[in-house]
Recover the amino acids of this structure.
């Protein structure tokens, strides 16, 4: 069974007393998508949006410069930049290493992949062909994810150590994205990552994550997803992998969510987590900006997975017949010298203030709209020039000044 969810949008019209119509979260359960993949789980972002507004807001972007399609390579000339130099200062990003925790703290050795659609999308979005900017953007998402997994609401902390990176100007041979169709897209990536994860080459990572700009859909093309991962897939050879669509900083929330699945966390309010609310937490089955902490169910799921790896939880229900490397999160097996997390000296929200977060998310809604002042530190709304239309994108990044005299520290 695969779960899909639809995000919430607001627009001006005949509506409530505030002049806004709210499309509620809707849960669609798709039961006919590869019924054998009972451990396959996806977070979706259905395009349930008012006419005239498209969910990804990709039209009217600047033309991608300096890309040689015939050779599948990037010319290293910068071209003429417009005023949209969103991530130019990321080129000067510096690494900062976080200490590996003790007790129930574990470290995921992470392999990051960016496919052709993602490279092309960011070259166009950033009006740049700098690989450093793409790398910096992914490091920022990893930094945010690292912060999320150290949130006080999570008792067992998880660290991340990037040990491998691949950026595909052309998708490699042997890999097929199946036009974004799941689960075949995920299966193809997992197979490719497994073929590259060679201990003899000093790679040997714990989890492989592919960043894409492709539309992720089911075989019927009637459900759209933001990310996908195998439940409890970490520490296995062929299921420790995920795909994340990361066209803006909400990708960090999706990255956090999919890593949670891979580490044994199920959706809140579903199956073994019925006692927890289905909204308001990182493992909520609905997308939106309110996911800023971990539920008690996620805490139990993670601890159950860790104790299973430790050999003290033989009745763990989500093994799905797979073989696990039970010391994989306790030992460093890669010879690659990478840092646990990448960041500048400031928090993400200090480097990327809310006005930048809106401008990067959408050209049509580039301005911060703080009409919901009571929840502004939890929900970031971006509006058009007239402020008559707005879009709820994600929670302000940690370190954002979200109200006068207040900084979002989740």
């Amino acid at each position: 069974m695969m779960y899909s969810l639809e995000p919430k949008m607001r627009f001006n019209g005949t509506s409530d007393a505030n002049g806004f119509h709210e499309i509620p979260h809707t849960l669609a359960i798709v039961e006919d998508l590869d019924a054998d993949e009972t451990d396959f789980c996806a977070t979706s972002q259905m395009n349930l949006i008012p006419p005239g507004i498209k969910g990804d807001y990709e039209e009217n972007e600047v033309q991608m410069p300096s890309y040689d399609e015939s050779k599948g390579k990037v010319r290293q000339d910068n071209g003429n930049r417009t005023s949209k130099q969103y991530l130019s200062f990321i080129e000067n990003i510096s690494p900062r290493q976080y200490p590996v925790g003790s007790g129930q703290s574990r470290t995921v050795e992470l392999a990051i992949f960016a496919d052709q659609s993602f490279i092309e999308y960011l070259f166009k979005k950033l009006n740049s062909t700098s690989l450093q900017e793409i790398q910096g953007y992914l490091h920022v998402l990893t930094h945010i994810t690292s912060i999320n997994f150290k949130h006080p609401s999570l008792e067992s902390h998880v660290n991340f150590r990037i040990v491998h990176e691949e950026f595909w100007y052309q998708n490699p041979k042997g890999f097929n994205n199946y036009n974004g169709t799941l689960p075949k897209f995920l299966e193809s990536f997992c197979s490719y990552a497994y073929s590259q994860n060679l201990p003899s080459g000093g790679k040997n990572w714990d989890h492989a994550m592919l960043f894409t700009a492709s539309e992720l859909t089911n075989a019927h093309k009637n459900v759209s997803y933001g990310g996908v991962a195998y439940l409890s897939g970490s520490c296995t050879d062929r299921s420790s992998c995920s795909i994340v669509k990361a066209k803006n900083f909400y990708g960090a929330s999706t990255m956090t969510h999919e890593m949670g699945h891979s580490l044994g966390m199920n959706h809140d309010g579903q199956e073994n987590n019925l006692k927890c609310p289905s909204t308001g937490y990182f493992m909520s089955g609905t997308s939106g900006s309110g996911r800023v902490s971990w539920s008690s169910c996620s805490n139990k799921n993670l601890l159950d997975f860790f104790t299973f790896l430790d050999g003290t939880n033989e009745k763990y229900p989500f093994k799905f017949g797979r073989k696990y490397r039970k010391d994989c999160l306790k030992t460093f097996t890669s010879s690659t010298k990478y840092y646990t997390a990448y960041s500048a000296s400031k928090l993400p929200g200090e480097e990327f203030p809310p006005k930048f977060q809106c401008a990067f998310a959408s050209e049509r809604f580039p301005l911060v709209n703080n009409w919901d002042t009571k929840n502004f530190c939890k929900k970031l709304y971006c509006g058009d020039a007239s402020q008559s239309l707005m879009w709820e994108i994600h929670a302000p990044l940690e370190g954002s000044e979200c109200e006068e005299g207040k900084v979002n520290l989740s």
User: Anything to note?
Assistant: The chain has a mean pLDDT of 71. The first strand starts at residue 2 and ends at 5.
